């Protein structure tokens, strides 16, 4: 067992403790996930917990109803079918960032489809990129096998939460490696689809990283929990580079505000062009320690864009 996926009814967070070969761990709350499809409200709360070397677990419902737990083991598969770490490309340019495509980290592409061959998510949608949201997974720090965690999140999103695919567009591990999340096309370019809009701009694929606010918003997530610690320097540098690439390509002011309008639902919100998940929803994401660093991150991104 490498991970536990939990779901329940109710506003209370179930407690869970894990058993290793040596001992029982401490009780910790299973913090719920605040992501999802636009226009779809789930009656259940979901949480994904890292359980390295776990051989057992106990759950305290803590007032939650109908608690369900699924054990996952992604350390041994699926097997990667693509090239190992390469360089991330966006549009016609390279980035210098270490990158793992879906094939490289071992994505099981069958999870995107129903038994009848239709897409589990529904029709793939593409829109102009308006703004960027930063997340943390609230998972394990000092992760010994981040690719296994990437596979676990994929199964959690696509199957257990019913998103039909990855909720995030890009993931960044503690070593600064970039992982392709949501499928956007058969080309080698993440996030963007194969076609351009009427104005000639590349269009981004809609994912499921902020319920109600997904279309036109790219979701970039750091692997780890930054409630009480900062990301590694390598992760932060890669995040800044990714944000600078999108800001430059889309002519976003990293220090500015965006009057975001969801092109599907019409809901609107004025947010920073580089925002945190909590700027859209009632969540602690991207972490109580890291969130206050977003202003300095925006300044760093602006400097990178200026140099380009």
Blueprint (SSEs and pairs):
Blueprint: E1 3-9, E2 15-19, E3 28-29, E4 45-50, E5 56-60, E6 65-72, E7 86-90, E8 93-100, H1 102-105, E9 126-127, E10 131-136, H2 146-160, E11 170-172, E12 178-180, E13 192-196, E14 202-205, E15 217-222, H3 233-250, E16 257-261, E17 268-272, E18 274-276, H4 294-307
Parallel strand pairs: 8-12, 10-15, 10-18, 11-15
Antiparallel strand pairs: 1-4, 1-6, 2-3, 2-5, 7-8, 9-14, 11-12, 13-14, 16-17
Describe what is shown at a glance.
Helices cover 17% and strands 29% of the residues.
Describe the structure.
With about 300 residues, the protein is α+β, with helices and mostly antiparallel strands. It has two domains: about 70 residues, no CATH class; about 220 residues, Lysozyme-like (3-Layer(aba) Sandwich), CATH 3.40.80.10. Helices cover about 15% and strands about 30% of the residues. A seven-stranded mixed β-sheet has the order 7-8-12-11-15-10-18. Helix 3 packs across helix 4. The longest helix has 18 residues.
Tags for this model:
single chain, 308 residues, alpha+beta, Lysozyme-like, 2 domains, seven-stranded mixed β-sheet, three-stranded antiparallel β-sheet, 4 helices, 18 strands, globular
């Amino acid at each position: 067992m490498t991970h536990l996926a939990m779901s329940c009814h109710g506003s209370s967070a179930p407690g869970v403790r894990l058993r290793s070969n040596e001992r029982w761990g401490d009780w910790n709350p299973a913090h719920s996930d605040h992501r999802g499809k636009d226009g779809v409200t789930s009656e259940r709360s979901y949480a994904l917990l890292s359980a390295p070397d776990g051989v057992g677990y106990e759950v305290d419902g803590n007032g939650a109803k109908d608690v369900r737990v699924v054990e996952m083991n992604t350390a041994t598969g699926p097997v990667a079918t693509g090239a190992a770490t390469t360089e991330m490309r966006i549009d016609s340019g390279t980035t210098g960032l270490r990158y793992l495509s879906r094939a490289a980290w071992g994505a099981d592409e069958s999870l995107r489809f129903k038994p009848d061959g239709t897409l589990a998510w529904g029709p793939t949608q593409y829109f102009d990129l308006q703004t960027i949201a930063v997340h943390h997974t609230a998972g394990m720090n000092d992760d010994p096998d981040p690719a296994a965690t990437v596979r676990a999140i994929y199964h959690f999103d696509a199957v257990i939460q019913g998103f039909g695919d990855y909720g995030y567009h890009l993931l960044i591990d503690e070593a600064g490696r970039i992982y392709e999340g949501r499928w956007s096309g058969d080309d080698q370019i993440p996030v963007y689809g194969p076609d351009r809009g009427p104005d000639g701009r590349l269009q981004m694929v809609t994912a499921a990283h902020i319920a109600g606010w997904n279309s036109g918003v790219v979701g970039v997530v750091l692997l780890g929990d930054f409630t009480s610690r900062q990301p590694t320097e390598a992760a932060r540098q890669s995040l800044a580079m990714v944000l600078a690439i999108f800001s430059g390509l889309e002519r976003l002011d990293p220090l500015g505000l965006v009057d975001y309008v969801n092109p599907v639902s019409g809901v609107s919100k004025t947010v920073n062009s580089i925002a945190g998940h909590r700027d859209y929803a009632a969540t602690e994401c991207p972490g109580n320690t890291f969130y206050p660093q977003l202003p300095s991150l925006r300044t760093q991104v602006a400097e990178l864009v200026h140099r380009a």
